[in-house]
Amino acid sequence: MLALSCAGPALLAAPAAHAQQVAAPVADVPRGGEAAIPLAEISVSATGVPTPVTQTGSSVTVLTSDLLQAQQVRTVPDALQQVPGLNVVRTGGAGGQTSVFIRGTNSNHVKVLIDGIDVNDPSTPNRSFDFSQLQTEDLSRLEVLRGPQSGLYGADAIGGVISFVTKRGEGPPKVTAFAEGGSYGTFNQGGRLSGASGIFDYSFSVQHLRQAALPVTPFELLPPGVPLRTAFTDIRSVSTKLGAQLTDSFRLNTILRFSDSAYLDQADGGFPYRPVPYRNLNDQQQLLMRGEAEWTPLPGFHNVFGANYAKFDRLFAGPLDPLAPPTPSTYLGERTRFDYRGDVQLSPGHLLLFGAQREDERFQATGIDRSNGNTGGFAELQSAITDRAFLVANIRHDENDQFGGATTFRIAPSYILPTTETRLKGSVGTGFKPPTLSQLYQDYPAFRSFGNPALRPEESFGFDGGFEQPLGDRVLVGATYFETDFRNLIQTAYFPTFSTSVNVGRAVAYGAESFVSVKLTDTLSGRVDYTNTVTKDEIAHQELLRRPRHKVSATAIWNPMPQLTLTGTLVAIGSFVDGNRDFSVPRLKNPGFTLVNLSAHYAYSDNLTLFARIDNLFDQRYQNPTGFLGAGLAVYGGVRLTTF
């Protein structure tokens, strides 16, 4: 989907009473100084088409561009910190490798989509996505869908789906630009040209994030005489989104996105970890392209034909000793996909989705050039059974060229009780993740480590159930219990003369997410989320690494005057088990941390906005993961210009 308006009007026409119960991360953020107007929260990722969250039982969080702009969140990892059920792990600065754990699942059990393009990276050993390059300036919304989702999304959606939708051009031509600077040698800029004319709409965005001097290596790891080398980040992104409404029933959409990042950090002198007086370079490039044709031959019957191409180039070099130039390691991943999706309104309030995909991926590095493919098809029924009872159910079958077939499903009902207006919701579903090309075929003869072409997919079965209860017109509370079981997890097995990957792992993750959302006045609102997560490796009988049991996140927005918006964010992560920087100590206790961020956003005029923010207000010293310092107290300020 390229925009909310692309598909799904049939279900939105179903009875939408009680939509005021939707729990947003905070109340709606006003634009241009206007008072906040409560709106029904819409999700696209939960069903595949725009659907009120009250009409699905899935656990989904939606963050809009208005909220992110008010909070002045510049990077996606910082935005995701506030989402319940997530642990965001970043190796240092803004450009450090960033992984996301959903409800205790592995970081590679998350399917990531940008404007419908699958961006899980086939060039990495576990096909995980590195979130470090993503910035927020061109995002319209991001959605986090928790729980197994392969019934609709296929491979890799074992733990959940994170979907990003970029902004689409509309209205008269408009140019926006911003610049900000601050702590750690930070200087960020961005700009966007967008609009619509006749049958065409367009959006062009550029973003640049630079952080020149962030201490990342803890001082206690530095040997005597080795100086601290601060991390340097430089990320540049350009994106284009074009559309043409050729007729009332036919539309074309295109997307082009390119990012290039360079990240330098303290170099490693060997195992165990020994910093040296030089730096390592991690350079990444991502190219994403998608074309779509939308056709609506009959009212209530919508079709989308699409093609994707994604390319991932990674280069690692170090240590960058000028006396001994290193030989860089390079990795290339490519993915192409052709897809079709249709949705037809069977009757008022009942929508049938169906589709098919063909996907091929390739991995190229020293000693390996391999590819694999997958063909899948799915169907989904969305039903507004009454104005209080809703059901979403899907089923999918995939045929992988390497290991054969996999059938998955998901069922998500929702019901609103009369009188109390309590919303009961739940879901049950399955997921699978095929072995990566690296796990199947990549050999390291010098270390007697070899790929295993006989690997099978990892699998999950998960369910959740909960409620949302309004307490008057200004308070909403809710809680959800979740549980996911994993089997056939791929792990490294060590034999007398070699090592390889095998399907021996089993694990379970369960817990609860609860929240209180309050609109204290027409100008002051907030929300507090608490997540409790318990994980267990059922083979080793140990808690899984980097899964904190306790997480609290809180957000607040205050408009003391029409032009001024103040926001506050708190994220508290409890203690968790981790390894040290190179895992020479495989299990230790990380004490956790608490971060408080503040921001101020003043609309001086329709064309000029001034903003400032403070991150890590209390200068909390923390490491997540262990061995990599997070940023301390930081102050930033800037200006945003808009022309009409």
From TrEMBL:
CDD domains: ligand_gated_channel. Residues 1-19 form the signal peptide. Its main location: membrane. Keywords: Cell outer membrane, Ion transport, Membrane, Receptor, Signal, TonB box, Transmembrane, Transmembrane beta strand, Transport. It is found in: Cell outer membrane. Residues 228-617 form the TonB-dependent receptor-like beta-barrel domain. One of its GO terms (cellular component) is cell outer membrane. Transmembrane segments: none annotated. This is TonB-dependent receptor. It comes from Methylobacterium aquaticum. The lineage of its organism: Bacteria, Pseudomonadati, Pseudomonadota, Alphaproteobacteria, Hyphomicrobiales.
